[in-house]
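dumping this here before i forget
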Amino acid sequence: GVLPRTCETGSPAFSLPFCNFSLSQEERVQDLLGRLTQEEKLEMWGIGMPAGPYIERLNVKSFVWDSTCIHGLSLPHLHPGDLITNTAFPAAIALGATFSREIIAAVSNATVREAYAVEQIQYQHSGGQQIISLVCDGGPLANTAHDPRWGRISETYGEDPYHVSVMGSEAVRRLQNRSEDGLWLATAQTTRHYAGYHGASPDILLPNESIPLRMYEDHVLPPYEAFQRPLRDGGAQAEGIMCSMAAATDPTTGEEVPSCANKYLLQQKLRDEWKSDAVVQSDCCDSISIMVKEGYTNNTQEALVAAVKAGLQLSYANTHVVDLRLQWNYSLLSGDLQQQDLDKSVSRILLTRMRVGEFDPDESRPYGQIPIDVLDSEEHRAIAREAAAASMVLLQNNGNLLPLNKDRIGSVAVIGPFAACEGDLKGPISYGTDDCYLHSYSGYPSRQTGVFAAVRESLPPWVNVDYARGTNTTTLYSPQAIQEAVFYASAAEVVILNIGIGVSERESRDRPYLELPQVQQWLLGNVSQAAANGTKLIVAIHSAGGVNVDTSLAAGWIQAWYGGEEAGSGLADVIFGRVSPSGRLPLTIYGQGYLDRMDAHGCDIRHFDLSCGPGRTYRYLKERPLFAFGFGLSYTTFSYENLRVAISSDAEKNIIKGDGGARPLVVEWDTEDDAAAAAASDSDDDNDDGDDDDLGDGASAVEVTVDVKNTGDVEAYEVVQLYTSPPRGPTDLPPHSLRGFDRILLQPGQTKTIAFKLSVNDFSVVTEKGERVVLRGTHHVYVSGHQPSDEKGLDASNVVEAKLEL
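structure:
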């Protein structure tokens, strides 16, 4: 039989106070805490893989924390076999390319429904002893794609801190669906990795990450702040946060301190400034003993004490979990830790479990009645297809090659190692050729639709469609494989070549170069030569990080990412014009020799001075990229006009006077007298209303409106992008920064007026001391479908500019 829910009729806990719904959650938690043994508390604090124990006398379930929810539900410790299949949406970086809050919301809502369906299946399968998929300790990443070499770019939304903040916050809010009173969650999301964890990790020993104070405030911390601040302050209020396994700078001391023992991160920032009550969890598989191995502490007990005193509340210790529980007992006996330290942590853990409704009967849980047939459903597959199509970035379309007219094609060759990853999946997902559209931490779909299958389905039956693999991602498939690809390419009217990176970029594997693997370079060169006599060549790049390619080799180029289970259909929708491409690059694709110039200046992947050498991310890049952040072509063109910028006198006054530090001050760069004078003016202001919320009056200090028109003859989405530019300052000051975006649908000839509301921070910069200030002088506001400096973007839309004096 199947046991009842913990607080359901028939459970031994049914009549206990922690099952009394008239009590507050805190009262219920304290009652349950008082009924746990010391060993049970320690088992909840230090969890192994995959779950904690089932407590029979209280009918408290074994609870699995380790799920991932970044592009659908991934359950690494549930071997589903024929038991569970679920939807694999496009990778996070592909979702970032949509610049669409609506698509993020649709994917997140579908993920929640599937999480509850999985929970029901596993609950039945375990006889009612285990809860799974209600907490995603692999929630949305606040890490940015700050370096093109990083192997985990597929898990991020992009390189820009504002863009990542917006997209990730939308995901957190939708995945959690927190109730208005804040007491109930659909799922609990743990955001990662705080702060750092960039660079490969071939084992658990991770080098320190050097983060200058300016980069903390300008680039690294803003997404974490957006994810963690309470909803009332405009944040997403993520239920948890994962401290990373790397050490990061503590600017109060200048030392490199392990993130899980870093009081600057876990106390000063998280608790004091951001007012977050999130559960602080360590990463798998042991953030405690690594402190000893890195020489930060002499032994495990010292490391445990340092982490707990800094704010760690839950350790994902895996194989080290027994030792950690022993060290807890030693620390309690020695007085280095107190019983209240353990009880406070376990109480917070139980509160999260209560907020997701773990203990409650199905009828009282908002998602408790989700039918299991939502898993891998046609409705969710349609969302995956829409998201895949929306993520496609048209990089080049010489001669208006695309879209293809399917009624005027006689033959097509679909070629490459990413051309036919399709069909039913017979085994567990792995980093192999069978998951090339899914990539890291994906779901387990019953089937994938590859490019070859989608192209065949898109065309009339009389059109000849051939397939040749050509190569594997990094090795030759067979001696004859490239010859076969060349044969089909030379004979076809249209060639769709699918190349990319795949297993060469992932967790534990950074990229040593930005070009294609050598065998795929051979394939590209040979296919391009075979198609030189009038064959239409379209190249789709399946990767997370940007790939440096010679764009003269083909007329059409599409950045296709890892598009999930409907990657092929999404790409075909764009190629054949069922959808006009609307994806925009959420990262920079760097030019030839970029890494050589980085290496010449010693710009290591774990060093966060983004101005080092040629610079990293569009905000600090000192040279022209191959393709710029925010770039993407459409099958139509757009016109921008009537840019209007309005600022009220009250708002301007609030910008200038500051509020004692929370709101930026208007100063000359690095002029302490001006800052002091502004602060003095603030303290002497008789009209100060005492509002020190930096989102207060500044949240709508400036309103920007612009008219956007579809000047072509195709219905299409446009991604409207707003950038601000400060007055001239130091040479490494970002020339402009993204401060707003909106994805809008326009019919041919249609005009829409789009409005943005900017905060004070949208005009600020960060000093070397980590102070956020607004520079006195002329600020510029740019609105377009691309960056103001992106010359390639001018093929798609113009740029409008306005000036603002502060």
